[in-house]
Amino acid sequence: MPKRPMEDEKAKDFKGAIVRLFKELESFKILIIVGLVLAALGSVLAIMAPNKLSLLIDKISEGLVIKTDNLTAITNNIQTNFNEEKMAEVMPQIINIELNEKTMAQIMSSKDITNEEKKQFQSFMMAMQQGNQAENFALLKDLPDSILAIILPDSTYNDVVITTNDKKAFLTLINSWEEMASNLTMPDAIAEVLLPSINIEGTVVTAQDQNSFLKIMSTLGENPAATEVYAKIDEMPEAIIKVVEPVFDMAGIKKIVIFLVTLYVLSAIFSYVEALSMTIVSNKFAQKLRKRISYKINRLPLKFFDKNQTGDILSRVTNDVDTVAQSMNQSLASLVSAITLFVGTVIMMFVTNWIMAITAIAASLVGFLFMFAILGKSQKYFIERQKYLGMINSHIEEIYSGLNVVKVYNGQKQANAKFDKLNEKVYDANRKSQFLSGLMMPLMNFIGNFGYVAVCIVGALLTMNGTISFGVIVAFMTYVRLFTSPLSQIGQAMTALQTTAAASERVFDFLDEEEMAKQDKITKVLDKSKVKGNIEFKNVEFTYDGNNLPTIKNFNAKALAGQKIAIVGPTGAGKTTMVNLLMKFYDISKGDILIDGISTKELTRENIHDLFTMVLQDTWLFDGTIKENIIFNRQNIPSEKVEEVCKIVGLDHFIKTLPHGYDSVVSENDNISAGQRQLLTIARGMIEDAPFLILDEATSNVDTRTEELVAKAMDKLTEGRTSFIIAHRLSTIKNADLILVMKDGNIIETGNHEELMQKKGFYADLYNSQFEL
Amino acid sequence: MLKLFRNLQKKDWLFAFISFILIAFQVWLELKMPDYMSEITQLVQTEGSKMADILVNGGYMLLCAFSSLICAVITGYLIANIAARFSKNVRKKLFNKAMDLSMGEVKEFSTSSLITRTTNDITQIQMFIAMGLQMMVKAPLTAIWAVTKILNKNWQWSALTALAVVILLSSIAIILTIVLPRFKIVQKLIDKINNVTRENLTGIRVVRAFNAEAYQEEKFEQVNNDLTQIQTFNQKAFAIMQPIMYIVMYFLTLAIYIIGIYLIKNSVMANKISLFGDMVVFSSYSMQVIMSFLMLAMIFMILPRANVSANRINEVLDKEVAVKNGKIKEDTTSEKGTIEFKNVSFKYPDAEEYLLQDISFSVHQGETVAFIGSTGSGKSTLINLIPRFYDVSSGEILIDGVNVKDYDLEYLYTKLGYVSQKAVMFNDTVLGNVTYGDNGKVKSDELVKKAIEVAQAQEFVSKMDKKEKTVIAQGGTNISGGQKQRLSIARAIAREPEIYIFDDSFSALDYKTDSTLRHELKKHTKNATCLIVAQRIGTIMNADKIIVLDNGCCVGIGKHKELLENCEVYKQIALSQVTKEELENA
């Protein structure tokens, strides 16, 4: 398994990377601006909403309060018409005592009236002459009903019939003026006379209504609780309820609701459009980056790939580009909206009420300071966790991939000991980091609640002072949440931005790598069909980047048209390098290589590649059918040609045994052996003729018997072509026209097999060592 | 998943139980808070309330919040402990199990899959326990609790909340059903884009030699466009999630208020204020309900993933190891370094065809036996039967006169010095790599030095910065293939085994080094038996016995000269490498 390079989460130059990122995003300017503006607008709406919502709640709570104005109007009406002064004034007319000769005689002569009662009446008469009006009235009420019926007969006052009973009750009422506060019962007729009906907001409150109001209210004790008052209202006559009952300001409420609905819908649309535009930007940008990387790969000099590992470049195409896109998608918009939200909330809070604002901010800040302290501490454990996890994973990887050796060498104990040690460390780091990271959410919750309570208490204090309305508290309950969430969002977005910067830096570093030299000035072209096939190496010298010593030194050789040239030598002698120079994969440092007398420096790389057929040691097959792999990028190759070539290399039969024949997918058929893979690459090389042929260890994966078959086929193909063969197995190249024996970058011997064997030099030594034990 | 939980220890269950209670308490506290909230609301609302009452209620609420925090902290601590200990134990168990697996089982799982199972899958499960478990207890508890609190308030509100939950969940479900299948496609396309790039990189020289840059770029672009398109679609679909959630939640709040207005309007005066309080409380409870349903939905999303991981882990843990350990831990015969194959046949358990058929031969102490044959002829398989990487399907293999199946593996291995086809290097010093393992003997410095010398490794080791103390990178990436091979040979030599097994271990060496090494080895290990698998005729020509394999059958046993005369396959192999004259002259 390829080891993934350690992800470096911090950019080397954060500012530079971000600036560069924005420069690269230039073409998406409009979409980004749209996205960011919408993000900011969304936040503004998010701030506006709670204020409006609090207004709505205010309106609703207003609908709970009884109409005190109307209540006062009623009470006033009662009070102006029903007081001692007024009583003294209107009482006599209402009571209308019929105390004249006629009535007196009637009393005295009445048989229904007992003597005792008559006596009482006489003493009343006596007392009355001495007493004042009020005292008289008090005495009056104590007279027996039978007498009262005569002296206080039903009478009319202002067209209202007032009965004797009414009068008696009234008298009783007046006499208990002091105790009147509780349990006040006044005859309706009297009320009708005393209390004029009033018209409140179109509703007529009659004297009767007022009377029952008076009666119900009188049942309340002193300083009644609001709820008691509210409950009493339910018992009142309809007219009073109608007048006093709280009424919702429906028009106002409707307005707010419509406003809020619009606001929420708009906000949702904004956030969706914002997300859409950012999604489009990030994906298109990722697409563009990937495409550029893919182009870049083919324009980098080979030396770049000597220094950089496949896994690293791969991770740039997928991981890094993905990281850039996704983290950018998340961080940019959320950063803008979070900052807007934060600043906006702070402003709104202060505008609404500065005391509450300070309360909310202070309460949250305390929590956040605490949280950052924890975060700072936990960082250490996160790093530790990553480190030990990486260590144990690579230990597992190492042991599993070398399992047979571990077993046969009884290395289990050793492996276990190391595993246990690391496992313990992972456990410890896991435990701590998990715990600390799990702390964040509850802590955030607590901060939210703490802020809430603080706001409520301070808010309640202020409400009771009448400084603010209840709606303000509700608004602040939301502000506290709005205020705490962007802080952590900003934190997250900043980390995401860090990641973006680091990843984009890696991507751009790659895209900025120096490309192969431009070939604009090259005008010479060697026509494939007219090439004779002579190649000359003239004092070629080549040094790999970063090496002090040249890999190839003063290399001179001449290959004539149609010759078979073999290059042999121990590993590291520079054989493959020679081929790389010939193919112009690398530029030579000194000297020259001439094809038909023309310097390769004067030819384009594509032109040179066109002249060569090349088969390499690594059996490079891509994910596709066998046919696609053989044809590769060549065009107009008929199927017959493919089959023909496969017959030559002895693959035809094998391919036809596969389930889909030539259309079998390579990756799905893992029974294609290394040898067969190699043969496929040879077939690929053979399918199109070129004047030169290079075989770089092309048969090393084939067993020797197959190799012989291939070699024979190759010999047929190489007829007339100049061919270069690099081989490990000396048997393959014995029939070469010229063998170049290389050691440490130099040609130390040249000649054909026989000549070299006779020399008894390095080649002969190498050759004979095959047969020693 | 549940099965895997059996690996939890008693202490873990206790912790889990305490956590459960704490979480329940936490939920209770969190749901209690809105009560105090409404209390405060009412107090603030009505005139004449005492400040002291508000303070008391605020204090209670704060106490709830703080207790909830404390509960959460303790729960977090307990669960972090459970998760970490669980992953530690399962990782250990899995690692031990993996080391017990025979090569057949390893092959069945594939090494890379075993690695992911021991690393990623365990991390997955750990994450699930750490986050999911808490949610899994908390979400339904909150949902049920909050619902019961809500239910005895007005039904209109409850119906509304239920509707909101239904809308939210069904929109999540719809989006997921649209997006999930496409996620799998995305994964495939990412693999594909990786693949195309990897192909281009690994075949960079081929691509350039064939001027196939445009061809590759076009291929890349196609996948790139597909990936971008489908990923954009997915993200667009997901982008609608947030606005929907936003709209549903706020509209719910709004609707609760509007319904509240009508309820208040139509109620008698006596109930108005308490209705208002209910309304404010309800709006906060309904959020709790919605949140807990969202949490539940989230669990249903992560649960399958964790379940897949759990199953993958269980697969390994439940795998029955085919190679059973024997009992013999000491020499029972006087034989030393002898090997005998008696009618050995081998096929993979589920395979139809035999890889080896009816192989019989015997080897005496000190002999060198070579195996040759074309690719796929079964040489490596044969040699791998000796250390019991696989067990024979029929027949038996005797070492020192005892069936290999009867040996205690550890004891069997002390007799062997095995060098694999692919040299294995450990992330350790050169010295650590050479002295690797345990054979019950102390490896003296002198011995190690000698081993390095014999393996022809002295030449490059002495050039290293810190000589024998130089650290080899993981996988031996800082040394060449030939150097790795020589060090792994030195490792075998340092063991001083009775029997050497070289599984094509000289292939990366040039002829000269190969020949010197074998020469030195022979001198150093006169009494040891030596089994060599090789491709090169030169490597094995002088063996005491050469066994020629073809398609799993033994087609010839004998010395080089004999085989040249009477074994057609051998002759062909030989002739493909050297000429007739050379064969005769050698």
Topology summary:
The complex is a heterodimer of chains A (773) and B (586).
Chain A: H1 14-24, H2 29-62, H3 68-81, H4 84-95, H5 101-109, H6 115-130, H7 133-142, H8 145-151, E1 155-157, E2 160-162, H9 164-175, H10 188-194, E3 198-200, E4 203-205, H11 207-218, H12 226-233, H13 238-244, H14 250-297, H15 302-307, H16 310-352, H17 354-401, H18 403-408, H19 412-464, H20 470-511, E5 535-542, E6 552-559, E7 564-568, H21 575-582, E8 590-595, E9 598-599, H22 605-611, E10 612-615, H23 626-631, H24 639-648, H25 652-657, H26 674-686, E11 692-696, H27 704-718, E12 722-726, E13 738-743, E14 746-751, H28 753-759, H29 762-768
Parallel strand pairs in A: 7-12, 7-13, 10-11, 11-12
Antiparallel strand pairs in A: 1-2, 3-4, 5-6, 5-8, 8-9, 13-14
Chain B: H1 10-45, H2 51-100, H3 103-109, H4 111-151, H5 155-202, H6 204-209, H7 213-239, H8 241-266, H9 269-318, E1 339-346, E2 356-363, E3 368-372, H10 379-384, E4 394-399, E5 402-403, H11 409-414, E6 416-419, H12 430-434, H13 445-454, H14 458-461, H15 481-493, E7 499-503, H16 511-524, E8 529-533, H17 537-540, E9 545-550, E10 553-558, H18 560-566, H19 568-577, H20 580-585
Parallel strand pairs in B: 3-8, 3-9, 6-7, 7-8
Antiparallel strand pairs in B: 1-2, 1-4, 4-5, 9-10
Helix pairs in contact in B: 1-2, 1-4, 1-9, 2-4, 4-9, 5-7, 5-8, 5-9, 8-9, 13-15, 18-19
